[in-house]
Design a protein that fits this description.
Helix content: under 10%
Strand content: over 45%
Number of strands: 127
Distance between the termini: 169 Å
Largest sheet: 5 strands, antiparallel
Mean pLDDT: 83
Radius of gyration: 64 Å
Number of helices: 7
């Protein structure tokens, strides 16, 4: 320390300390810091010096200084010459202000949402925050809440814009710059979520899939689904995999984001059960040939298609089985009998109804004729008698028409003539009709008259061979006659040619059948015979009738619009023929067919049919109708276009005899007439001097001279083009050059548009030749000059433009080059120089040998480039030739070239030498020369990148390094290159998959994930990741090779999984991660869904029970159990015909791999059908009147029933509970059964026990007869006994009991009745009574032992327990 010269004693100043105000941990560059230099013990009158980074600051000697820069500060206190020590250093650190940043998940929002933005500062001091939208500061309010560093917006449409924030330290002047702006888009309106339907139908049917999707613009939305007011799931998609009617309702979704939510529109989903198909028809039985229609009826009106089945076989559309819409129409064949069902399917959907209930159709193999019955039939009938005829046909729906001969009488099942007369004589038959189908009965001859003479009757007196002629032998009486026929005196026997039926002789006429015919009648079983009838003549023509056809007019071709008549006649003299003309489906009666106005539609074949009875002859003719021939219009010259003043001639031509036609001409539509320029002659039109006004569309038509209404169509229009101006001929040059060289060929052509031109050629003013082409085969300079041509046609000519031709001598060729020697592999260039600049090609020669272009000797333009070989040394010359011309120069003077030894050898190396380099690896390429040589320059090149030096190094390979690398070595002009290809690719990306068919799993299932890398997978190890974090094994998860196994899956295992490969040898090489796979493990394991089709609380026997089992997901097998017994392995279990043994508890098991789940159990209850009871309820009057059995069927379960009856298993008509059967030999042996039927379940009852009548009718009649006799005997006996008792009463005997009546049963039990005792006491007087009693006893005994009585005493033995004699 120093001391001043004053001599004052020095002052001891303590070491000062530096303090800071304010004392913040962090100081920012914008702040000012105050440092204080404090001396302990409060020394006064001190001055202070301050130092920064050891450098003294400018003195102001204050104890405090304001600091704006960071550094190391020190201070020293002074008083006069006394100084303290420097204080300890004090470091001031100032740091740059942190940047504020707006962070948020929100970039867009809808009005009403709450959006949060955070202002983030990396420092943790006590900051306050300011917010701005655009340049406007934001004040905290209900809509814009600011808390700490967070701005919360209750969004309105005005809130859209750019947001920034700024932070300020509390109690300090530190303020950050504004953050970068953060955009927020606010939508004007809040749209409703878009609810989408995949394959939408209204309605859906049971079992269909319904898929609804909910979508809202923007990110971060969650979606809740509702049915009516019931919450369903939270997911963007709601799927009903198998719809049922319970799924019907209004569906909507709610999009939620934060506290904000928006409801979609409501979507109505309607699901209904599949409708039932039902077969409806009026037909239950049919005959062959009838048309039967069955309809498949569905109550719904959608677009159904229909399938038909007979039994289990599907019916296809054919000529016999027509299917249109819902109707099956059968053209009935015997094979069509059976049970029919139908099934409906919705178009373009998988909806299919169950098959309908079967509908039976019985087809009779043979079509019987109607049964015509006669009531009280006599033959003959006499005047005034009643005749009744009945017609009957098996089946329902028949109507009956009655005919007498060919006359229609009435429509009724019965035809009655209440009082006959001779006019009723005739042949009767009936016809049964049903729809379009009809069947004739046999004919029935009715005759009402006295015994007549035999008489031959017939309309036939002449006939042609082949006709059928009928002759009748008519008798006035109606007895049962037989008939004989005679030709001349010879009797006619029945044969194929002479058919005799009843009183009719039918001749299949032959030429030998001409002659006189007589007949004779004889009553069957009687000797009555008529005399022969008068003879009936029959003439037989020699051959069949000759049909003659005529056409008027008889032209071979008829033109459209003309009239034509066709006439049909028979050449022979004959009568009673009917004439009919036919073309296609049109028919006209009569001899003549007239066409008033022929058209092309009348073309074709016309057939005349002549008919007499069954004999028909036809003859056809063809009518050829065509339109009149269409003229052809042409120009009568070689050329088709014309120039002003040329003559034009048009010709109208008609094929054939043109002299038959006149002609009319038309221009642009209207008909033409002659004028000063246009004239007509025959079929030509002439324009004497053409002008442009004559241009236009011309046509013509022909008009027939003799067939006046006939005119042709107009000819196809011809456009006549008359040019306004006459062009000059076009002079053309073939291979034109400027100049030509000596010896070349010059060819000039002259062309004028149009045809018929001739051309003259001129050089200067000299005429050369007349030809379209002028050729100079070998030019010389004397051919230089001016050329032109002249085009001539008729009297008309035009000159072309002139053409200058220049011819000169050939130039000389010369070789030029800087090369006189080279090394093999170098490229040497020689040029062939011509003073002219035309398009020359060049030929090169080495010695006398021509050099061809090759890889070693390249010739381009006038340059020969040699890729030098040792053989290339020698003398070179060239020659030039003009391209596409025959001009060739003389050879040039020779040029020498010397070639040295061999070329250098270039060597490549790659390190490492793998065929493929993976990205990230290092690789080096080296280029060198094998021989010892020097002064070479090396250059590597890939694409546009060039590197000098031997070695090319790639430190970190990328895909951009793929490609070809070329090393170039150069010495002087000699350059050698060699290339190699570097193949760089990314390590293969693994593929992650689930090692099973199914992709979703349930708790406790085993899950295996497989990580696959194409190629040799043994080179790779594998790493596994879940939700981004690398996985390690635990009690549930294990790894093996490229597989990850979860031994027992849990919901917690549901995550995003991925994997990657790591090369086992090339250590830095790892693959990219595989595409993430989301593994979904359900929280709960659902039970399989067991489905019931057409389900009832209980089923009746023979009904179909169908169960289905379904488990969500793939890969399931299904096993069905009844109780614990395994039934089948199938998704569906069907009992086609239920029985009582099928009652039980059913369930199914869904199984995949080692995992299985049982469904809920389902109770199936099968009950017996209600029994049908068949009883015999035959009245006594029925038995006595007509051997009729009355059967009754009853199902007594309280329901309304109709009934079906069966005889020997064949169903009978009717649906009543009563069935009356007439006892015949067949019916008493038949078995009868019945069954209840109805339209609701149960559709039918059980079949009743069978009933067989046997001989019950006969037995009961015998029983009644015997019973009657017994009753009569008893009555007579009682009366006799009473008389005896009154007249002779014995003495000393007991009084006879008052009750003398006893039963038949008592008669057998008693040893002696009172009556017997009475009669025993009077043997003489009571003899007759005893005899009668014996008779009675015998009868009573007979009643009890007779078989008939035995049958009746035990009716169950024969009549199956049925009761009889109702009312007795």
């Amino acid at each position: 320390m120093s001391q001043e010269s004053t001599g004052d004693p020095p002052i001891q100043i303590p070491k000062p300390n530096i303090s800071q105000n304010p004392t913040h941990k962090v100081l920012y560059s914008t702040e000012t810091v105050t440092l204080h230099c404090k001396v302990p013990k409060g020394a006064s009158e001190l001055q202070y010096d301050w130092y920064k980074d050891s450098a003294k600051l400018e003195p102001d000697h204050q104890s405090s200084i304001n600091v704006r820069d960071g550094g190391i500060y020190e201070c020293m206190a002074k008083n006069g010459s006394s100084e303290s020590e420097k204080s300890d250093s004090y470091t001031v650190t100032l740091q740059a202000l942190p940047e504020a940043k707006v962070q948020s998940d929100w970039t867009e929002a809808f009005p009403g949402e709450k959006v949060s933005l955070q202002c983030v500062i990396p420092e943790s001091e006590n900051w306050t925050y300011m917010w701005f939208r655009g340049s406007e500061p934001i004040v905290s309010s209900d809509e814009t809440s600011i808390k700490d560093n967070t701005l919360t917006l209750s969004v309105k449409s005005s809130h859209g814009g750019e947001y920034t924030c700024q932070a300020e330290l509390k109690d300090r002047t530190v303020k950050t710059a504004k953050s970068e702006s953060y955009p927020l888009t606010v939508h004007d309106n809040t749209p409703k979520p878009d609810i989408r339907k995949d394959q939408w139908f209204d309605p859906f049917y049971t079992g269909e899939k319904v898929q609804l999707d909910c979508n809202m613009a923007g990110d971060g939305w969650k979606y809740d689904w509702y049915k009516d007011s019931e919450t369903l799931i939270t997911d963007p998609t709601y799927i009903i995999h198998s719809a049922s009617p319970s799924n019907t309702g209004g569906y909507h979704c709610t999009a939620k984001r934060g506290d904000f939510s928006v409801d979609s529109e409501t979507l109505q989903v309607r699901v209904q059960a599949l409708p039932e198909a039902k077969v409806q028809s009026d037909w239950t039985e049919a005959f062959l040939g009838e048309k039967v229609s069955l309809q498949c009826v569905i109550r719904e009106t959608e677009n159904w298609t229909y399938m038909w089945f007979k039994g289990s076989d599907k019916i296809d559309h054919s000529d016999e089985t027509s299917i249109k819409d819902n109707t099956l129409t059968l053209s009935v064949k015997s094979s069509h009998g059976g049970e029919y069902t139908c099934q409906a399917e919705l178009k373009d959907r998988t909806v299919k109804t169950a098959k309908s209930k079967s509908y039976p159709l019985t087809v009779h193999d043979k079509t019987p004729k109607p049964d015509i019955r006669k009531d009280q039939w006599f033959d003959p009938f006499y005047t005034g008698e009643k005749i009744q005829l009945d017609c009957n046909m098996a089946g329902d729906g028949w109507k009956y028409d009655w005919y007498k001969d060919s006359e229609t009488l009435i429509t009724d099942p019965t035809y009655i003539i209440h009082s006959t007369s001779p006019s009723d004589t005739g042949v009767y038959h009936c016809k049964a009709k049903r729809g379009d189908f009809s069947v004739d009965s046999e004919t029935l001859q009715v005759r009402v008259q006295a015994l007549p003479e035999a008489q031959v009757k017939s309309d036939w007196t002449e006939a042609f061979p082949g006709e059928k002629v009928s002759l009748q032998c008519v008798i006035r009486e109606t007895e049962n006659w037989t008939y004989m026929w005679f030709k001349g005196s010879d009797k006619i026997d029945h044969s194929d040619e002479t058919s005799i039926k009843d009183n009719t002789l039918t001749l299949s006429v032959k030429s030998s059948h001409g002659g006189e015919y007589t007949c004779q009648a004889k009553l069957k079983d009687r000797t009555v015979k008529t005399a022969k009838s008068e003879s009936h003549p029959l003439t037989v023509h020699g051959s069949k009738p000759t049909v003659v056809l005529k056409q008027d007019p008889s032209y071979q071709e008829i033109y459209t619009g003309e009239e034509v008549k066709l006439t049909c006649s028979i050449e022979q003299k004959t009568s009673n023929w009917e004439y009919k003309w036919q073309k296609d489906s049109e028919k006209v009666n009569g001899h003549t067919y007239t066409i008033s106005n022929a058209t092309l539609d009348h073309n074709g074949e016309y057939t005349c049919t002549i008919t007499r009875r069954e004999m028909t002859y036809t003859k056809s003719t063809k009518l050829n109708i065509r339109e009149p021939p269409r003229p052809k219009l042409s120009i009568n010259s070689q050329w088709k276009t014309f120039y002003p003043n040329e003559k034009v001639t048009l010709k109208c031509s008609i094929d054939g005899d043109s002299s038959k036609w006149g002609y009319e001409w038309f221009k642009d539509g209207p008909q033409l007439s002659g004028d000063k320029d246009i004239s007509f002659s025959g079929n030509t039109l002439t324009i004497r001097s053409a002008n442009a006004i004559h241009s236009g569309q011309y046509t013509c038509r022909g008009k027939h001279h003799t067939r006046t209404p006939v005119t042709t169509r107009q000819a196809e229009a011809l456009k006549l083009d008359i040019h306004d101006k006459t062009p000059k001929p076009d002079i053309r040059k073939d291979q034109w050059f400027e100049p030509f060289y000596t010896g070349e060929k010059i060819q000039l052509g002259c062309y004028m548009p149009g045809d018929g031109w001739m051309y003259d050629w001129y050089k200067d003013s000299e005429t050369l030749i007349t030809d379209p082409t002028y050729i100079i085969h070998s030019t010389s300079p004397s051919d230089t000059g001016v050329y032109h041509c002249k085009a001539k046609r008729g009297d008309f000519s035009v000159d072309s433009e002139t053409l200058q031709v220049r011819v000169q001598a050939l130039p000389e060729a010369q070789v030029k080059s800087d090369w006189t020697e080279a090394f093999p592999g170098e490229k040497v260039s020689l040029q062939c120089v011509i003073r002219e600049t035309e398009n020359w090609t060049y030929m090169w020669f080495k010695g006398s040998d021509k050099i061809d272009h090759s890889d070693e000797t390249s010739i381009k333009d006038n340059t020969l480039t040699l890729s030098v070989k040792s053989s290339h040394g020698g003398e070179y010359t060239c020659q030039a030739k003009l391209k596409d011309r025959t001009v060739k120069t003389a050879k040039s003077k020779s040029h020498p070239l010397t070639v040295h030894g061999s070329k250098p050898t270039v060597v490549f190396k790659q390190d490492p030498s793998y065929q493929e380099i993976y990205t990230g690896e290092e690789v080096k390429l080296t280029c060198s020369i094998e021989q010892k040589t020097s002064n070479w320059e090396y250059k590597w090149q890939k694409d546009s990148e060039k590197v000098n030096g031997h070695t090319y190094t790639i430190s970190n390979a990328t895909l951009d390094h793929n490609g070809e690398y070329t090393c170039t070595i150069t010495r002087r002009e000699m350059t050698y290159t060699k290339s190699t290809t570097l193949n760089i690719r990314e390590p293969p990306r693994p593929t992650l998959s689930i090692d099973s068919q199914w992709k979703t799993f349930y708790p406790n299932e085993k899950v295996t994930l497989k990580c696959s890398i194409d190629g040799d997978s043994s080179k790779w190890g594998y790493e596994w990741f879940r939700n981004g974090t690398r996985l390690s094994g635990d009690e549930d998860i294990s790894f093996s090779s490229n597989k990850l196994s979860i031994r027992s899956a849990k919901a917690s295992h549901s995550r995003q999984y991925t994997c990657r490969g790591k090369h086992l040898k090339r250590t830095p090489v790892t693959t990219r991660q595989a595409e993430a796979l989301k593994l979904h493990i359900h929280v709960d394991t659902p039970k399989p869904h067991i489905r019931k089709y057409h389900w009832f609380d209980f089923f009746y026997t023979e009904e179909k029970v169908q169960l289905g089992c379904n488990m969500s997901g793939d890969g399931w097998e299904y096993h069905w159990y009844k109780g614990s017994k395994l039934l089948i392995s199938n998704p569906n279990h069907t009992i086609n015909s239920a029985s009582l043994s099928d009652t039980g508890v059913y369930h199914c098991t869904a199984k995949r791999a080692d995992f299985s789940v049982n469904s809920e159990s389902l109770q199936v209850q099968v009950g017996a059908r209600p029994p049908a009871v068949l009883s015999l309820e035959t009245e006594l009057s029925d038995i006595m009147s007509g051997n009729i059995l009355t059967l009754r069927c009853n199902v007594s379960d309280g329901r309304q029933w109709s009934y079906a009856w069966f005889e020997n298993k064949q169903r009978l008509n009717g649906s009543s509970d009563m069935c009356k059967v007439t006892a015949t030999e067949e019916t008493i042996k038949s078995e009868f059964k019945c069954q209840g039927i109805r339209t609701e379940r149960p559709l039918y009852s059980a079949l009743s026990e069978g009933f067989t009548a046997n001989n019950i009718i006969l037995k009961r009649k015998i029983l009644l007869a015997i019973s009657g006799c017994v009753v009569c005997c008893i009555v007579f006996m009682i009366i006799g006994c009473l008389v005896l008792r009154i007249t002779r009463k014995p003495e000393g005997k007991e009084t006879v009991p008052e009750d003398l009546f006893f039963s038949m049963a008592d008669s057998k039990k008693q040893t002696a009745s009172p009556l017997e005792e009475y009669m025993d006491n009077s043997p003489t007087e009571m003899e007759v009574c005893e005899e009668k009693e014996d008779l009675l006893t015998d009868h009573v005994s007979d009643v009890h032992v007779d078989d008939v009585i035995k049958d009746e005493d035990s009716p169950a033995a024969e009549a199956n327990g049925l009761t009889s004699f109702k009312g007795l």
